Amino acid sequence: PPEIRREDYRPFPWMVPETRLEFDLGLESTRVRSRLTVARNAKADASPTIRLNGDGLVPTSVKVDGEPTRAYTMDGDDLVLTLPGEAHEIAIETEIDPSSNTQLMGLYASNGMLCTQCESEGFRRITFFPDRPDVLSTFTVRMSGARDQFPILLCNGNRTDEGEEGDTHWAEWHDPWPKPSYLFALVAGDLVARSDSFTTMNGREVELNVWVRDGDLPRTEHAMESLKRSMKWDEEAFGREYDLDLFNIVAVSDFNMGAMENKGLNVFNTKYVLADPETATDGDFDAVEGVIGHEYFHNWSGNRITCRDWFQLSLKEGFTVLRDQLFSQDMGSEPVKRIEDVRILRLAQFPEDSGPLAHPIRPDSYREISNFYTATVYNKGAEVIRMMRTMAGEEAFRKGTDLYFDRHDGEAATCEDFVRSIEDGAGLDLEQFRLWYSQAGTPKVSVELTHEGNEAVLKLRQTVPPTPGQPDKKPMPIPLKLALFDQQSASHSGEQLVVLDTESAEHRFDGFANKPVLSINRGFSAPVTINRAIDREDLVFLAASDDDPFARYEAMQDLMVRHLVAGVGGKLSEEERSRGGQSIAQAMGAILADPDIDDLMRGELMSMPSQTYIAEQMELSDPGLIHAERERLKSLIGSQLSEQLHRLYERAEQVPFSLDAEAKGARKLKTMVLAYAAASDPEKAAELAAHQYDRADNMTDRQGALMVLTGLEGVERTNKLLDFYNRYEGNALVIDKWFALQASSLHPQVVEHVKALADHPDFTLRNPNRVRSLYMAFAGNPQGFHAASGEGYKMIGDLILELDPINAQTAARFVPPLGRWRKVEPQRAALMREQLERIAKAEKLSRDTYEQVSRSLA
Ligand code: HT7
Ligand code: ZN
């Protein structure tokens, strides 16, 4: 497959002001008639030919200006026409089979209903069209189908007409906002709605519907409330008002990603709509709110202003992730949300940036754009915009975003347009900052603080590591929030912002009779790795006393990571290991006892660094050793703080169920205590977990208990897993949890368990949620995936080959775990590589998987 390059972008020679589509809907056969008005684009190089993208389509009729024509050519899957005049009308008919569409792109059948997914290049699987985001058109759609099969017919915009003819009925929809084809959506099925309304800041009354299958209605309240909160928040935080009279959300159970922001008709994975306390965890509730917000915010950052081309994806995704993060921060605990977001970045994006698939947030080339819906484009993209906000300050940043929305409303814009708007609106010079858009790799900043006389001297040095295709990097502006603490009073005289924009820099701070303790990258002000020369005692001090909650968390993480990395590297004697562990336990003990911390935050401060994050700190990692060292520390902390932890548990147990922060914090603590107990006193932990499971009146407690039990031996494991299955049989989202819990468990036989689960009657490769629940959970479980025998790698290799023809997008997402072979010790690395080579040799690979495998081997 050819490589598509950003520098080759050319405007499309034709505009498509209007698109009319008619659908005769059927699960096995849907007829699509399109009528496009096209006119030459004065802003592009003139061309008499127009290329209409198709993917697997055969035209049954083509007309130009009402006359049937055969004067078109097929170039691969695309239909190419030569048009003599300035403006024409093209009419094309196609027929498609949604029921055989297992890729879940274009129009497909899910559970008896029909729905679409067009981003990024799915529309071309429905009809021939210039399927690129810079061609904006006004869509009018008529859809008709059997009334009993498809009682509900939905599309973008507003319904303008409807009617019946015998057993069929039809609806006509018009979307007044010009949009690119990737925002087109249609849904037809037997659905029911939770309805509500929202009055916008200028008095527009908007009808809101959340559409689900009949029995799911009681689980939609949280989604609806989240939607209303999102609409209000976007008005207040960004001045953005909704612009149609109707907003529909539809939940579907077969979906490649989380959700899709189609204009006026968002389509969601059921996972991000359905939630009630019995079946959804606190984490699920938060995720629903975050994703509902994310898709809603796209109405401005994505739909009103879209992307010129797919290289600009971070323009809408990075910005919208930042917007959903800020929304969730405002709805719940700001520091806890910040910690969660940093954890995700470190877990998913840092490994991407240090591996063979590293790419800038605005990539320069791709073969398959679906592979670039990455943590880099999304989460690092959000961090990059967050840095602009930090440097500008909130007020000035808002001026920048106001200007961006004003200047580019109705356009297909670029990342450069965004940066220039922030520059002009916020009054910032972002010339050098643009490097964050073009350079890949996580910068490393080394930090040293010395003390001379009354001065503290801060030395900073940055390096940006080489990444594929980018051997040499330039220094980037890195905004670092810092504070210098006086140990005695445990206070500082104010936070400062230092922007490191050269390779190295020195800063002097006057007025320190004693050497202060440095707190740096507070709030994670820059997405970098900090390598600081700091004593363990100073870290203990920061963990106990820093007034920035993120910095406190970071100090605890740092304490543990240093200890673990030294242990894995064989640098600790038994005595040092024990002493180090005890001092960590002591620091954690202070956190457990601190009355000024709320329990949600306490849970964060207690959490151990992930295996992935520890591995990232090492040149070459041995997953077995890291796992063992991490479990040893967990066990030491668990036994050292046993009494305190159990007291905490007893206190938390008294808090009755509710969705407020206090009760959520209590639930988080309970499972955290169980996890420490599982490492230090498995029998006691099993007993406690079984008790928690039995008493649970909510999914958070039940899942937390079962998570701990699945990692342990014993009869309670078997009993509770069976009970869980029987209790929730038929509830797909909860059965997904049942699969995921077992696949991510610490149990030594996890590989055998996953093999058996793959043969379970409820397992299917046709449903991406189910595939992810078993195999993504497994690929993220170092115990299983990195089994020394290589069986874990083989299982993922087998999966990729079997899934590729069914759902290429989902299959390709399993390649990156194998692609990290260069960072793993040689024996395992060879086994990982072997699987990649086996996949590469397969006779027919999708473009998606081919690209990921070849980049991983290069
Ligand atoms: N913008 C949406 C992207 C998306 C997607 C991309 C490729 C294949 C399937 C997809 N489903 C949704 C999601 C979002 O970021 O909001
Ligand atoms: Zn998005």
Secondary structure: number of strands: 32
Summarize the main sheet. 8 strands, mixed
Tell me the number of helical segments per DSSP (H or I, 4 or more residues long): 28
Rg computed from alpha carbons, rounded to a whole number of angstroms: 28 Å
> Could you give the distance between the termini?
16 Å
The ligands found in this model are: (3S)-3-amino-4-(1H-indol-3-yl)butanoic acid, zinc ion
Q: Which sequence of strands runs across the widest sheet?
A: 6-5-9-3-2-12-15-14
Helix proportion range:
40-55%
Q: Structural class, judged by helices and strands?
A: alpha+beta
- Uncertain runs are none
Sum up the overall morphology in one term.
globular
The pLDDT mean sits at 98
Organism: Qipengyuania aquimaris
Domain Peptidase M1 alanyl aminopeptidase C-terminal: 537-858
Domain Aminopeptidase N-like N-terminal: 27-183
Family: Belongs to the peptidase M1 family.
List the helices and strands and how they pair.
Elements: E1 4-5, E2 14-24, E3 30-40, E4 49-52, E5 59-64, E6 67-68, E7 72-75, E8 78-82, E9 87-96, E10 106-110, E11 113-117, E12 137-146, E13 152-155, E14 158-165, E15 168-179, E16 186-189, E17 192-199, E18 205-212, H1 221-238, E19 246-252, E20 259-260, E21 265-269, H2 282-297, E22 306-307, H3 313-331, H4 334-353, E23 365-366, H5 375-392, H6 394-408, E24 412-413, H7 415-426, H8 435-438, E25 444-452, E26 455-463, E27 478-486, E28 491-492, E29 496-500, E30 504-509, E31 517-520, E32 529-532, H9 536-545, H10 549-568, H11 574-593, H12 599-606, H13 611-616, H14 623-640, H15 642-653, H16 661-680, H17 682-695, H18 699-710, H19 715-728, H20 732-743, H21 750-758, H22 768-779, H23 782-785, H24 791-803, H25 808-812, H26 815-819, H27 826-840, H28 847-857
Parallel strand pairs: 2-12, 18-19, 19-21, 22-24, 25-32
Antiparallel strand pairs: 1-23, 2-3, 3-9, 4-8, 5-6, 5-9, 7-8, 10-11, 11-16, 12-15, 13-16, 14-15, 17-18, 20-21, 25-26, 26-30, 27-28, 27-29, 27-31
The structure holds (3S)-3-amino-4-(1H-indol-3-yl)butanoic acid and zinc ion (ZN).
Residues 117, 119-120, 256-257, 259-261, 294-295, 298, 317, 370, 373, 809 line the site of (3S)-3-amino-4-(1H-indol-3-yl)butanoic acid.
